[in-house]
Design a protein that fits this description.
The complex is a heterotrimer. Chain A has a three-stranded antiparallel sheet. Chain A is built from eight helices and three strands; from the N terminus they run αβααββααααα. In chain A, a hairpin with an 8-residue loop joins strand 2 and strand 3. Helix content of chain A is 70%, strand content 7%. Chain C has a single domain, classed as Rossmann fold (3-Layer(aba) Sandwich). Chain C is globular, with a radius of gyration of 17 Å. The chains are: A mainly alpha, B alpha+beta, C alpha/beta. Bound molecules: adenosine-5'-triphosphate and magnesium ion.
Chain lengths: 181, 745, 225
């Protein structure tokens, strides 16, 4: 599941990075690693397979090939459909589940990079989290002890995420500064 | 030892603390204790003041015995002026280096006079116009302080070359060993009660001041105890805090004492006005003050801490405190009443030893007030069930911590009780003095005694010729002793003469009258045998009728005194004056001025109402001032306590105000909270004061009089004080109940 | 659901610090609203303005059509006493009254007889499971018991709105949940709306929706129902 999430968000991340302007695949990998890939840099293969999927779905287009051979000479640009896709992605909260931080982090950074409201992203997410917590709380209040224990487990995990969200929200200004560098 | 000192030092540091609040607390404490110390130091100066007065009196005494002819002749020339008495002597030096009385540079020669500054002022003032004819001499100087009793002494020393030597006017020098005068009973009574009543509250107040704003300190010390400080260490720390206040108080007290000392000059009562230099506390008493005040402060503080030390958690968590016990608290009250009751009426006998039970009783009763009050407040407060929320809040607060309020109000109560007692004693004394004055005033006769050595046959004629004199009668008076060795005077005169000195309706020749002495001791009875000192003769007292008069003794008509040898008796002229003429007596005295020391005049008919009024007004003012000052201080303490309580309860107060509890309710609960202990203490203290007043007056065998206006005024002041204090607490309540009070600190 | 209490364009400054900068909120009848946000964002200030404890510098607060900001201090006091209930983080109970008397206090202030007030209060204390400490003083109870006593006091007058500022702030999670559970259940039963300031998500999860305050500005994050 982790991988799927990762794969799904790599596409969106690359799209988001392309919003700044057309780039080579190699550039994209470097930009991605710099921002999101501290402990897990992308393989070239991952970049090109993702790009070709995006190309197939019409979210990016090839923007000319420079002299020389090899795939790294191709430049890619985001299409209008690609922009719409990024927007929808940013505006949709992730399903409140554990281990979201990578995706959320990517979303926040990309929102900042593209001049969209990162606060909005976080608020949307926290609302989704809280809704889930509310449901769990309701189930807990109505349920028996086993329900309570199980719900509490989930609640504490969600709460931890929410705390992270809050902390991130509080540090958005600092983050924006860092991203802009 | 090092640890003891460091614990004490920690206490001092906690007291001084650094924050503005702790400075205010220390200042209040210092002011409270300082005032007490000043009063104590003044009291400690009284022995010096009166002692110095006695010493100067003795130094002035004429030494009559000596070898060879006397170098100086002295005649007493003291003369009354209205209700003042001008003391003085006429002297004639027979040798050039004749002895001088203290306070003068040289003896006045013939026609010269030395006066006291106050007499000089009086002579120069418009009031003194009628006195001037009696002192026509040339003023050559004034007395130095060592020649006077006090700054308001009216005194003179005049030279007169016409004085001839006789048995009674020989002077070989001045100055005698002190015999110790002693105060008159009335003054003694006032001063015993006054000293006890004023000094005791001072001591109580030292404790109250030490405990000023103690609740918070208790909590702090309880916290120290909770983190593991041992009981003895907490006691040491508490002592350190108390010591800091006491030391500041001592400093302020000495400062105050020296600041008010110069004012002793200006006391408008000649008997009390004192040279500032005479107001020096005696060394032993000063040491007692210096030692006892800090000791008292420390003891009170440690004693009051006992609950905190035993159950520190109770103070921190505001648990219900343990109930106070009654039994030891009633002991002083019962003891006091018993002691004073047993002395009722006995004081008249004048024996000094019996003043001790009286003093003891007064002290015990005064102590009963602060001892009983906390218990009583607690009792009442536990009975009251809050009928309204405001009352409930107040009552519950008091149930938790009745001690602080009761303690502060207890300070007020002692002062109040003392003041009421003093007022009553004063009222009784004043009443007695007025009644006596009233009795005397019915007697419009100026009595003129002629110096035995200089017969003045022309005197009745001179007197009769003076304006304002209706008639002149002659009495012959002498002294005798009864077989019980009591002294009495015997005067013989016609009915017309006797009527002027004794109040008798149907005088007939052949009757004898007795003016009884005040306490009935030593009154001669019919059948007693009298022995006359001058002649050695005896006389059997015939049947006597009792009558009122100013001077105690037997008064016989000529027929009744048939067998009486009047040799050596002196002549007493009675001049009936027309009292409707203003200052008639002073005019007559001026007519006698040329005879100076040869005649002495006494006038009982003087209307001294205004004088009495002035004296009592002054005393009463001083009393009020002292009471008011103490009450103000107590008010300040109440204010500190009140503000601190508001501050402590900021959060609940703010929360209540936030949930819509009207401020009025909260303010009202403050009024109740101060008012309940106050009402109780006022009732108790006025009750105790009156009881004490009755017992003391009874013990001194005087008639009981109630000074209701005075009691009302003092009570009113203390009630007003609580209202004022509450009103002053309101701003801090307002601040606490604002939305800001909800913010955590 | 009709709007019970609403605020618009609230501004409030303390000296140079601006605590509220155009905040607005609407509370509907019977709903539980959580106000969240970082520390110092103005949550408490917003709550105080809403409850009429603190007058805002500008903006309006409307309760059932009445403008709170235009009312006199006394009228607001009266309103708070009769229509609102309050639970704060700590220290709201009068230390010298017993817990029962604390709960009965608002009823008695409205003129109810002592007996009746204490009977009604005892019922509420039973519901909040603190009847065992009825005759103890607040100092002798645990923090959680004290908070439940405070909740009983807030609910005893059958208020239309209960304002709670960090009601579980001084409690551990179990006690906090217990207080929240009892508070929201009781409020739902009596139909009282609850305005709940908290920074704990698990506490906020007892609400129906959440309002986030940031830098003195509030925004509705979600509205369920
Ligand atoms: N009485 C006051 N005086 C000065 N500044 C104040 C006052 N009350 C609030 N503030 C300021 O207003 C801002 C908002 O305060 P408020 O208490 O509403 O924050 P909050 O959101 O409740 O914070 P917390 O979660 O820490 O309780 C803060 O910056 C605070 O410093
Ligand atoms: Mg707050």
């Amino acid at each position: 599941m982790v991988c799927i999430v990762l794969l799904m968000s790599i596409g969106h991340a690359l799209l988001g990075l392309l919003e700044g302007g057309p780039r080579h695949g190699y550039d994209l990998k470097r930009a991605y690693d710099e921002r999101f890939g501290q402990d897990r840099p992308l393989h070239y293969g991952q970049v090109y397979s993702t790009l070709s999927r995006l190309l197939k779905n019409g979210l990016v287009s090839e923007a000319g090939v420079e002299a020389g051979d090899g795939p790294e000479r191709k430049r890619y640009a985001i299409t209008d459909a690609g922009v719409t896709d990024v927007e929808r992605w940013l505006g949709t909260p992730e399903k409140p589940e554990p281990y979201l931080q990578n995706t959320l982090y990517a979303k926040v950074v990309l929102a900042l990079l593209s001049g969209r409201s990162a606060t909005e992203v976080l608020d949307t997410q926290r609302a989704a989290h809280l809704r889930a917590m509310r449901d769990l709380t309701r189930r807990k209040v109505d349920g028996d002890l086993a329900d309570q224990l199980i719900c509490d487990f989930a609640l504490f995990h969600l709460e931890a995420d929410l705390r992270w969200l809050e902390l991130t929200a509080a540090r958005l200004d600092a983050l924006a500064e860092e991203v802009a560098r | 030892m090092r640890r003891v000192l460091s614990d004490l030092a920690l206490g001092v540091r906690l007291a001084v603390g650094g924050s503005r609040k702790s400075w205010v607390r220390l200042a209040l404490q210092g002011a409270g204790i300082g005032m007490c110390v000043a009063v104590l130091l003044l009291a400690a100066s009284i022995p010096t003041a009166f002692g110095n007065r006695d010493l100067r009196d003795d130094a002035r005494e004429v030494v009559e015995e000596g070898t060879g002819p006397a170098p100086l002749l002295v005649e007493n020339g003291s003369v009354a002026f209205r209700s003042d008495y001008v003391r003085g002597e006429y002297v004639r030096a027979l040798v050039s280096d004749a002895p001088k009385p203290p306070g003068v540079d040289r003896l006045p020669g013939d026609g010269e006079i030395i006066v006291s500054p106050h007499l000089a002022d009086l002579l120069a003032s418009p009031e003194g116009v009628l006195l001037r004819p009696r002192f026509p001499q040339k003023v050559i100087g004034t007395f130095a302080p060592e020649g006077m009793d006090g700054p308001l002494d009216l005194r003179f020393l005049a030279g007169d070359a016409t004085i001839q030597p006789n048995d009674g006017n020989q002077a070989h020098g001045f100055g005698k060993e002190g015999s110790g005068g002693g105060l008159p009973t009335v003054l003694l009574m006032l001063s015993i009660v006054g000293a006890v009543v004023l000094l005791f509250p001072v001591l109580v107040f030292v404790s109250v001041a030490t405990r000023l704003a103690a609740a918070q300190r208790d909590r702090r010390l309880a916290a120290l105890r909770l983190v593991g400080a041992g009981a003895s260490r907490v006691r040491l720390i508490a002592s350190g805090e108390a010591l800091a206040g006491a030391v500041v108080g001592l400093l302020i007290g000495f400062g105050l004492m020296f600041a008010i000392r110069p004012l002793a000059d200006d006391i408008p009562l000649p008997e009390v006005a004192t040279f500032p230099s005479d107001l020096t506390p005696t060394l032993p008493l000063t040491l007692v003050v210096i030692v006892s005040v800090p000791v008292l402060a420390v003891l009170t503080s440690v004693f009051a801490m006992r609950r905190t030390i035993v159950e520190p958690l109770g103070v921190v968590r505001e648990q219900k405190p343990v109930r106070r016990r009654l039994w030891w608290r009633v002991i002083p009250a019962l003891g006091g009443v018993a002691l004073l009751g047993s002395q009722a009426g006995k004081f008249a006998n004048g024996s000094k030893a019996e003043s001790w039970p009286v003093i003891g009783g007064v002290v015990l009763l005064m102590f009963a007030v602060p001892a009983l009050l906390p218990w009583l407040v607690e009792r009442v407060v536990h009975q009251v069930r809050g009928a309204t929320p405001a009352l409930q809040l107040a009552v519950r607060r008091l149930q938790l911590d009745a001690g602080t309020a009761a303690r502060v109000v207890g300070g007020v109560a002692v002062v109040l009780a003392g003041t009421v007692t003093l007022q009553m004693t004063l009222a009784s004394v004043e009443n007695e003095v007025r009644a006596e004055d009233q009795r005397e005033r019915d007697n419009p006769s100026l009595s003129v005694t002629v110096n035995e050595t200089t017969p003045l046959p022309e005197l009745p004629g001179v007197l009769a010729g003076t304006q304002g004199v209706r008639r002149v009668e002659t009495l012959r008076s002498t002294y005798a002793t009864t077989q019980d060795n009591d002294h009495t005077s015997v005067s013989v005169g016609t009915c017309a003469a006797l009527e002027l000195v004794v109040r008798i309706a149907d005088c007939a020749d052949g009757r004898t009258y007795l003016v009884p002495s005040g306490n009935g001791v030593g009154d001669p009875k019919a059948g007693d045998t009298l022995t006359f000192a001058k002649t050695g003769g005896t006389w059997t007292v015939p049947a006597v009728e009792r009558a009122n008069g100013n001077v105690f003794g037997l008064y016989a008509t000529p027929a009744a005194a048939a067998g009486l040898d009047l040799t050596g008796s002196h002549t007493e002229l009675q001049a009936e004056v027309d009292t409707s003429r203003p200052d008639v007596v002073e005019h007559v005295r001026n007519a006698l001025a040329p005879y100076s020391w040869r005649v002495h005049t006494i006038f009982y008919g003087e209307d001294s109402t205004s004088e009495i009024e002035q004296v009592f007004l002054a005393v009463r003012r001083a009393l009020y001032a002292a009471a008011l000052l103490t009450l103000l201080l107590a008010g300040a303490s109440l204010l500190v306590v009140g503000m601190e309580q508001v501050r402590e309860r900021r959060r609940p107060l703010a929360a209540m105000a936030a949930s819509g509890v009207p401020r009025r309710t909260l303010a009202l609960s403050l009024v109740w909270q101060n008012g309940i202990p106050l009402v109780i203490s006022t009732v108790v203290s006025v009750g105790t004061g009156i009881l004490l007043g009755v017992l003391v007056t009874k013990a001194f065998d005087a008639e009981v009089h109630y000074d209701w206006t005075g009691i009302g005024v003092v009570t009113g002041i203390s009630v007003g004080l609580v209202l004022l204090v509450t009103a002053l607490t309101l701003p801090s309540l307002r601040r606490a109940t604002g939305a800001l009070g909800l913010r955590t600190e | 659901m009709t709007t019970l209490l609403s605020a618009e364009g609230l501004h409030k400054s303390f000296g140079k610090t601006s605590a509220l900068d155009g905040a607005g909120i609407a509370i509907r009848e019977g709903e539980v609203v959580a106000i969240m946000g970082p520390s110092g964002s103005g949550k408490s200030t917003l709550l105080h303005c809403l409850a009429g404890i603190l007058p805002p510098d500008s903006g309006t607060v409307t309760y059932r059509g009445q403008d709170l900001t235009a009312m006199t201090d006394n009228a607001r006091s009266e309103l708070r006493r009769t229509e609102f209930g309050f639970v704060f983080q700590f220290g709201q109970l009068v230390p010298e009254l017993t817990c029962l008397e604390n709960v009965a206090l608002p009823l008695r202030l409205s003129g109810m007889k002592r007996k009746d007030a204490e009977r009604a209060s005892r019922d509420w204390m039973e519901r909040l499971e603190v009847d065992t400490v009825a005759d103890q003083r607040p100092g002798e109870t645990s923090g959680g018991q004290g908070q439940r006593v405070a909740v009983a006091r807030a609910l005893v007058t059958a208020p239309k709105v209960v304002f709670a500022d960090e009601p579980t702030g001084a409690l551990d999670s179990l006690n906090g949940e217990r207080v929240m559970h009892l508070l929201t259940t009781a409020a739902r039963e009596t139909g009282a709306a609850v305005v709940l300031v908290t920074h704990e998500a698990r506490v906020a999860a007892y609400s129906d929706r959440e309002v986030v305050v940031r830098d003195g500005r509030s925004r509705d994050v979600e509205f369920v129902r």
